[in-house]
Structure formats: C-alpha cells, structure tokens
Amino acid sequence: MDNMVNIVAIIQARMGSSRLPNKVLKNLPFFSSETLLSNIVNRLNEVKSINKIVVATTDKSSDNIIEEYCREKKISVFRGNEKNVLERFYIAARNYKADIILRFTGDNPIIDISLINESLNEFQREKNVDYLSLKNIPLGMGVEIFTFKALEKNYLNSIFEYEKEHVTPYFYKTCPQNFKILYLDKNKDEIPPLRFTVDTFEDYNFMCILFDELYSKNNFFGLKEILELREKKPWIFEINSSIMQKRVCATLDEEIEEAKRLLKKQDLNKAYKFLTENWRK
pLDDT, tens digit, for every residue of 155-190? Predict the structure, then answer.
C-alpha cells in the first residue's frame, strides 16, 4: 500500500448518554485533569502511522463543550448529525481527505496501542482490504479500520437506522459479500471476556480503580498489564461484570430474541413465558 496514504483516526463523542451523561469528559484518573476523551487522544498520538486525529461530535448545543474542550487542547473537531453517525463519519473523513479511517468511540478510554499498531500493519500489508476488525477482544478494546472508498459505499447504500447509528454494520452485517473483510482473531491468546467500555456508573467506578492501579506505572498501560492485574486482584473485575451490553439488532425478530435473553437473565419468567408463547416462532 502506498506510503503516502492519509490515515485519520475519528473518535465519535457526545455528552448525551441515557445511562451515564457527560461521560466522555469525566476525569480519568479521577483526581486529574485528564478525561476519558483525552486518554483516547493521548493513546492515538502514540500511533505514529496516524496522520490526523479528529473528534466527531454532534451539532447539538449540549455538545458545544466538546468543541470548546477540543479547541483548548488543540484537537481537531468536526460537528455533524446527532442521529446519523454514519453521515457524521463520512463528512468528517471527506473533509480531512482520509484514505484510511480508524473508528473509535469516546467511551473506550483504554484502547491498546500495540493492538492498534498490529491492526494497521495487517490492514496495510494485505492487498485490497476494505474493512478490518478485531475478534475475541475485551469490549472497549476493539479496532475498526476501513478505506474511504468503502465508507463512501457504506454511506451511499445504508438505509436502515441501525446502520446509520452504528456506522459499520453495513460492512459486517448487511452486505459483507460486497467487501473484502479481514478479521484478526485474538482467540488463540485465550483472552477472557472482560468489559472495558464506560456506559454506566459501575463501568466508570471500575475504570477509576483500574487507573489507580496502573496509570502511575504506565500512562498507556494495555491488555498485558490489565491481565496481570487480574491475576493479582480478580475482585476488581467483578465491579462491572454484570452490566449487559446493548446489541445491534437489525430486525424486530432480533430485538424480540434479545428481549427474551434479557428477561431470562433478570428472572422475569412470567414476561419471558408470555413473550415466548405469543410471539411468532
């Protein structure tokens, strides 16, 4: 792949959140001036192949504070549609003349630099890859990489709300046959199913403790250090282990199956029985 390609990392971020409002600018470590968002930017600055880091926030007035924060920190910022995040990504990538895009979200503050470098190297080594994603990695450490050409095809052809909200389902769920997709499977490393995203107060409390344990030793601690800590202090990882992650559902049938799963997990057996008996098989 041409060495002159423009590699742009785009971080989607907004202040609105139903479960943990204003999370992207919450302090991390707790007693510091750093935030969830600044930790992501700081880590991406360590990935030397990336030419530009852009925070893509919404055009809502409640997100003015994100734009102000980014300008104060000299971070490039783009503002666009709140609901159509795919459009926001596409226009941001087009404005910054991206050839390759790395997608991140503002609630995942411990993206692993070594995993990002590995993913970028594989993406550039393989010929004509449109989309790359990591598999079997803790939630919140994922890496997604795609070409601008693939993003444009995604943008022009996505019609469903879930595609526009979650940016990349058109690649891996709707029309994977239209793209050359590369999955880096980390299952061989026997990585446990841990949760490193921040959606709730439990997640944030867990993240603060994790930073208290590891940040002073290495500001850019990664999966290796976290797994070592888990061996020594496994109780820390129980703090947010019961949080259920939202799934991307494309159809009503998928939503019904997800609802049944959640009802069963919460021991809401009467509701589960009613839904099972009354919904079409």
Answer: 999 999 999 999 999 999 999 999 999 999 987 677
Asked if residue 200 is part of any domain, the answer here is: no
- Cα–Cα distance, 235 to 139 (Å, whole number): 18
Dist CA 170 CA 179 (whole Å): 10
Distance CA 174, CA 154 (A): 10
- Kindly state whether residue 223 falls inside one of the protein's structural domains: no
Rounded Cα distance, 151 and 89, in Å: 9
CA angle 89, 20, 155 (to 5 degrees): 15
Answer yes or no: is 194 within a domain: no
Sign of the CA dihedral 80, 81, 82, 84? Answer: negative
Does the structure show a pLDDT above 70 at 86? yes
Instruction: List the alpha helices (DSSP H) in the chain.
Output: 36-44, 64-72, 85-95, 113-125, 148-157, 161-166, 169, 201-214, 223-232, 252-265, 269-278
Q: Coil, strand, or helix at residue 117?
A: helix
Range of the domain at 26: 7-189
Retrieve residue 110's tokens.
Answer: 């411990």
- pLDDT tens sequence across 15-41: 998 889 999 999 999 999 999 999 999
Whether 35 is in a domain gets the answer yes
Q: How far is CA 19 from the centre of its chain?
A: 16
Q: How many domains does the chain have?
A: 2
Number of neighbouring beta carbons within 10 Å of residue 59: 13
